[in-house]
Amino acid sequence: MKIDFGKLKRTIMLQILLILVITLLVGYFISYVFIDGVLQAPFADWFIRFCENVLQLDYFSAQRAYGILFRQNKSLWLAIGLIILLLVIFYFALSRFTKYFNQIAIGVNMLSEESNQEISLPSELDFMEKKLNDAKNKLEKRAKDAQEAEQRKNDLVVYLAHDIKTPLTSMIGYLSLLDEAKDMPVDQKEKYVKISLEKSYRLEQLINEFFEITRFNLQSIILDKESINLNYMLMQLADEFYPLLAPKGQQAIVNIEGEMKVFADANKLARVFNNILKNAIAYSDDNSIIHISAHHQNDQTFISFTNKGKTIPPEKLMMIFEKFYRLDSSRSTQSGGAGLGLAIANEIVHAHGGTISASSNDEKTVFTVMLPTLS
Question: Where is coiled-coil annotated (predicted)?
Answer without folding.
Answer: 125-156
